[in-house]
Design brief:
By secondary structure, the chain is an all-alpha fold. It is built from 24 helices and no strands. Helix 10 packs parallel to helix 12.
């Protein structure tokens, strides 16, 4: 029985490292952008199947037969396993903690908040039965707190684990993600560095790379990503696909579409139908004007939703497809898809504490109907009380600008950029704010920073990022 539990624990820890990090970071998918000469890029993309990906980025193990769409079935088996154990011994704290962890996995796979509630109930029962030396239950509650955007609560729970186990990898990683969300980048960087020094794994190195990206330290971030890939292990396909997708996103944001597409496709070679890579690849194709290809990738994500694996991505897909309709002149089709995404987001907000205020605010600002900007600002005023990462503060500044509150928008944008984050969309929005205030020189400075960050950030890129709805700056400011 001990060997079975040991095996279950190892499998649980590996699964957690694969799947919880991308949700905690809350990657800003809809703001990612790239644009170059379409005819040139079509030939580039078309040749990627034959192009040789650089050795540090290639997957050196045999291709796995694992498909991301099979994930929920495996978690269902894990849930059933621990439910039976708890039924036999309802006073056991460790089995309840493992059950809570399994419920959390299903919550992240499906995007259904009821799994979080089941996880919370199991974790609290676990702590009642075993109030000490029970990190699994405490960290399950920490991840639930983070899902509710109670980042301070998540840090307190992680600190409780660290008092007895100072080197606990998951507790330290929890503190990194929560501090990043709160805008405490210095603290997140210090913890991530200490974590990597102790445990230089694919997961910890990827986490440190994300911190470096937030700080605008591209060279260091790329080095961390490469070390993360060098540390990958056979049989951990989700981590390998996830890290390549995030690295591809960084190249994507810097205008290197060729390398970005190669990395996305390598991630999909490792883990077929991987939703995160498909969504990023769809957005890349959208930026290039390859609308049919983008639609195919979005459809592939939705096709996996019947297994519920990709349901968490459905709202992103709806918004991405709405952008495709808008770019093709189908305004009514775009509005219909936006309305579907809005209905899902509002349903989340009404039913639980796990809603997505920032995502709804961004949708409202993109749609720009009467009253949308005021509601978006109200949503973001609530959100910035909880988290202050660059994407959140940038959306807050956008809402303020829409309502002609330029000085407040300027202050919010300054806070968004204070850690050195390099993001062409943020720089363009900062330029629009300064232009609104009549600060021509500062507007030009931000405009040049956007072009230096991504020299290919053109009109289509600004439209996709929502910037086309404002009076975007240009070289003649």
């Amino acid at each position: 029985m001990k060997s079975i539990r040991s095996c279950d624990l190892k499998r649980k820890l590996k699964f957690q490292s694969r799947f919880w990090l991308p949700i905690a970071i809350a990657l800003p998918l809809t703001g990612i952008a790239l644009a170059v000469n379409p005819s040139e890029m079509r030939s580039w993309i078309g040749s990627l199947g034959q192009a040789q990906l650089e050795a540090p980025y290639r997957y050196r193990f045999a291709r796995t037969s694992l498909d991301s769409a099979t994930g929920s079935a495996a978690v269902e088996q894990e849930i059933a396993f621990y439910q039976k154990r708890v039924a036999r011994n309802p006073t056991d704290g460790l089995d309840l903690a493992s059950l809570a962890s399994a419920y959390l996995k299903m919550a992240r796979l499906t995007g259904i908040s009821s799994w979080y509630l089941l996880a919370e109930q199991s974790a609290r029962r676990s702590l009642t039965n075993l109030p000490f030396n029970n990190p699994g239950a405490a960290l399950a509650l920490a991840r639930i707190a983070e899902a509710k955007h109670d980042f301070a609560g998540a840090i307190r729970l992680a600190d409780g684990v660290l008092r007895s186990q100072p080197n606990h990898e998951e507790a330290l990683a929890q503190k990194v993600t929560a501090n990043l969300a709160m805008g405490n980048v210095k603290e997140a960087s210090q913890i991530a560095e200490a974590l990597v020094n102790r445990i230089p794994t694919t997961g910890t190195l990827t986490l440190q790379a994300l911190v470096k990206t937030t700080q605008g330290k591209d060279r260091d971030a790329i080095q961390d990503f490469r070390q993360a890939l060098a540390a990958e292990e056979a049989g951990d396909a989700p981590s390998s696909a996830h890290t390549r997708t995030l690295l591809g996103r960084l190249y994507f944001q810097r205008g290197d579409s060729r390398k970005a597409a190669q990395l996305y496709r390598e991630a999909l070679r490792i883990l077929p139908h991987y939703p995160l890579a498909l969504v990023h690849l769809a957005q890349l194709e959208t930026r290039l004007g390859n609308y049919s290809a983008a639609e195919r990738h979005y459809s592939e994500v939705l096709a996996t939703s019947q297994d519920s694996t990709a349901r968490v991505f459905d709202r992103i897909v709806l918004r991405g497809r709405a952008q495709l309709r808008e770019l093709q002149g189908d305004r009514s089709g775009a509005r219909e898809l936006q309305n579907q995404a809005e209905a899902q987001l509002r349903q989340d907000l009404d039913r639980s504490n796990f809603g997505h205020r920032r995502e709804l605010a961004h949708l409202l600002l993109e749609r720009d109907l009467p009253g949308d900007a005021a509601e978006a600002l109200s949503l973001m005023q609530a959100e910035v009380r909880l988290r202050k990462d660059p994407e959140t503060l940038g959306t807050f500044a956008w809402a303020l600008l829409r309502l002609d509150r330029g000085r407040e928008a300027q202050q919010a944008m300054g806070e968004a950029l204070r850690w050195g984050t390099r993001d062409a969309a943020l720089f363009y929005r900062a330029a629009a704010i300064e232009r609104k205030l009549g600060n021509v020189d500062r507007a030009n400075t931000f405009f040049q920073a956007a072009l230096q960050t991504d020299p290919t950030f053109d009109d289509r890129a600004r439209r996709i990022a929502g910037l086309g709805l404002e009076s975007a700056p240009n070289a003649q400011l």
